[in-house]
Amino acid sequence: MAPYSEEYEILKENTKPVSPQAAPREYTVVYSVVLIFVYWHIGALYGLYLGFTSAKWATIIFNYLIYVSGGFAITAGSHRLWSHRAFKAKLPLQILLMLLQTMSCQKSVLNWVRDHRLHHMYCDTDADPYNSTRGIFYSHIGWLMVKKHPEVIRKGRTIDMSDLENNPVLKFQKKFYPILVTLMAFILPALIPVIFWQESLNIAHHVSLVHLVVGSHMTFAINSIAHAFGSKPCDKTISPTQSISLSLVTFGEGYHNYHHVFPFDYRVAELGNNYLNLTTNFIDFFAWIGWAYDLKYASPDMVAKRAKRTGDGTDLWGRAIEHADIQAKRVHPS
């Protein structure tokens, strides 16, 4: 029986699960994570109250800048640069993105990327860390509160991370992550307002939790809402969707249907909506000064052909293509 068992394991290892998949499983709650999330959210609500009643304007502006900077570090850095290699970055930009990503407190880049590459390779299956087949709560935040599914662990070992494991910037972050995240995400955001404009430590700390919680939910929303509500202009057979409103609050990450079809595109969206796609503008700026280069994108012809073949008949704004054609003729009559 031994040879059969080994052969079965090899076959099992190389078999890609078919989505949607959510086999019955036991959930083992990680209570330490639950308690951290409870504290963060209660503290953030208190911080929001302080922001409206007691905090200095400098503290509010300071935390807003941290929120925006951390958001760009996740969308441009963890996601488009390191997860999908959609563009390349010179050392100064890599260091900047790594430090700001640490400030967002969303795992080290290497852990973030492994989970995200798993998500793309095994989307909506038991090997997907945030499997949307298990419901919107699970894909949003619940997956972080329980131990990983055995398939996530098993398939995670097969994900190729060789392009990042020898990156000195990411190796440094991984090695010193507990120290760095404590300093960047908690100590500095609390102490800087106290030292520079005499904010109270209580207010500075709790207001800083607001940007931490809101920034986390910004990322979580792509894993959950962008797999539940919206249009599917590129591929109607998959769960990822496109949402203009979600793009507004996620710096351009809401064009998720497009992204799952063309994950290599640094824009994560078609041309024509870049003024909503702040991350694309962020990358374009650093390309202009020479810190970002080799920006990859799908050609308009490639996008049009795929949309015609598998799309749901909507355009990049979520409108029916027939309606879009009528509007175009009104603006540009032949």
TrEMBL record:
<keyword id="KW-0472">Membrane</keyword>
<dbReference type="InterPro" id="IPR015876">
    <property type="entry name" value="Acyl-CoA_DS"/>
</dbReference>
<keyword id="KW-0812">Transmembrane</keyword>
<keyword id="KW-0560">Oxidoreductase</keyword>
<protein>
    <submittedName>
        <fullName>Fatty acyl desaturase</fullName>
    </submittedName>
</protein>
<dbReference type="GO" id="GO:0006636">
    <property type="term" value="P:unsaturated fatty acid biosynthetic process"/>
</dbReference>
<feature type="transmembrane region" description="Helical">
    <location>
        <begin position="29"/>
        <end position="49"/>
    </location>
</feature>
<keyword id="KW-0444">Lipid biosynthesis</keyword>
<keyword id="KW-1133">Transmembrane helix</keyword>
<feature type="transmembrane region" description="Helical">
    <location>
        <begin position="203"/>
        <end position="222"/>
    </location>
</feature>
<dbReference type="GO" id="GO:0005789">
    <property type="term" value="C:endoplasmic reticulum membrane"/>
</dbReference>
<feature type="transmembrane region" description="Helical">
    <location>
        <begin position="176"/>
        <end position="197"/>
    </location>
</feature>
<keyword id="KW-0443">Lipid metabolism</keyword>
<keyword id="KW-0275">Fatty acid biosynthesis</keyword>
<dbReference type="InterPro" id="IPR001522">
    <property type="entry name" value="FADS-1_CS"/>
</dbReference>
<feature type="transmembrane region" description="Helical">
    <location>
        <begin position="61"/>
        <end position="82"/>
    </location>
</feature>
<keyword id="KW-0479">Metal-binding</keyword>
<dbReference type="InterPro" id="IPR005804">
    <property type="entry name" value="FA_desaturase_dom"/>
</dbReference>
<comment type="similarity">
    <text>Belongs to the fatty acid desaturase type 1 family.</text>
</comment>
<dbReference type="GO" id="GO:0004768">
    <property type="term" value="F:stearoyl-CoA 9-desaturase activity"/>
</dbReference>
<dbReference type="GO" id="GO:0005506">
    <property type="term" value="F:iron ion binding"/>
</dbReference>
<keyword id="KW-0408">Iron</keyword>
<keyword id="KW-0276">Fatty acid metabolism</keyword>
<feature type="domain" description="Fatty acid desaturase">
    <location>
        <begin position="57"/>
        <end position="263"/>
    </location>
</feature>
<dbReference type="Pfam" id="PF00487">
    <property type="entry name" value="FA_desaturase"/>
</dbReference>
